[in-house]
From TrEMBL:
PANTHER family: TRYPTOPHAN--TRNA LIGASE, MITOCHONDRIAL
Gene coding for it: trpS
InterPro entries in alphabetical order: aa-tRNA-synth_Ic (IPR002305), Rossmann-like_a/b/a_fold (IPR014729), Trp-tRNA-ligase (IPR002306), Trp-tRNA_synthetase (IPR050203)
Keywords from the UniProt entry: Aminoacyl-tRNA synthetase, ATP-binding, Ligase, Nucleotide-binding, Protein biosynthesis
GO process terms (BP): tryptophanyl-tRNA aminoacylation
E.C. designation(s): 6.1.1.2
Protein name in the entry: Tryptophan--tRNA ligase
GO cellular component, one term: cytosol
Family statement: Belongs to the class-I aminoacyl-tRNA synthetase family.
UniProt key word Repressor: no
Broad enzyme group: ligase
Organism classification: Bacteria, Pseudomonadati, Pseudomonadota, Alphaproteobacteria, Hyphomicrobiales
Gene Ontology molecular function, alphabetical: ATP binding; tryptophan-tRNA ligase activity
Species name: Microvirga mediterraneensis
Gene3D superfamilies: HUPs, Tyrosyl-Transfer RNA Synthetase
Amino acid sequence: MSVDIDHRPVILTGDRTTGPLHLGHYVGSLKNRVALQHSHRQYLLLADTQALTDNASDPAKVRRNVLEVALDYLAVGIDPVQTTICVQSGLPALAELTLLYLNFVTVARLERNPTIKDEIQARGFGRDIPAGFLCYPAAQAADITGFKANVVPVGEDQAPLIEQTNEIVRRLNRQVGRDVLPEARALIPSVGRLPGVDGKAKMSKSQGNAIALSATPDEIRDAVRRMYTDPNHLRASDPGTVEGNVVFTYLDAFDEDRAAVEELKARYRQGGLGDASVKRRLDDVLQSLLAPIRERRAALERDPGYVLDLLRAGTSAARERTQATLDEVRAGLGLFTFEEAGFAAPR
Ligand code: TRP
């Protein structure tokens, strides 16, 4: 495994800057990032150029959310000393790597990517798929390999993108004749994907079924109150079903007291436990999870200069790292250089 000079394996992961991060991001990836940041050399990418691939008509939203997502990172416990946070659009080497990688993937393969297929469906692109969108797996391959990442903590929906990255890596390495780029491993949490509060398969801001990490106490309470349970559990005295019951799925994901959750499940199945009681417990659990996050966020919001300074320093460090990879790839492919022809490089 290729590692950094400080011998820790390298993590790269990121988020599109389209809106505030929510509990789905938390269980899918943020928790792993916070846990791994000491044992790994971690880079987090504010993926604003990727966000444009399906938000080209609203660049203002994409821009605004760069700072918002950075605030979410710091609020959940990303330590800016351990983790480098950077802005994708500030890293031109990634764009250039993308362009090179596009020659090592076919349109048919991009169209077959299950994540892309799902997202095309969800966004209702029909036949009008932006080319940038179809090709973003190559850009994500550039993100991952530009940092020479070994580990990519992501939700399970992203697994096909890591697979496609490694295919590009293998093809490029074969072309170059040696392993210029490392393959990366997706790190996917065992909990699986968190459903939306409405019971739909995926929590997503665009579906309006998400609980933001920055949600107010009232927003949390309302979301829990609206939450999908067992539609056949009409009276508290009726036996209820736990499987597919979102309240229990969330308790499984967030309640640390496993024994208490198992006991609640047993009582619910048996009959005699109302939805309101289970929801009260979940509300307590989520309130105590999110309160400190919200407080840290509020403190940071008062000092945007501090956060922007971090992003600037992080982007600058990331620029150097990704440019070094680009230089290696260019050299590996044997692209034209003026130096080789005995001339100074153009400025
Ligand atoms: N596609 C990811 C998402 O939608 C965001 C992302 C961009 C990413 N670049 C990445 C994730 C590199 C992991 C690695 O959430």
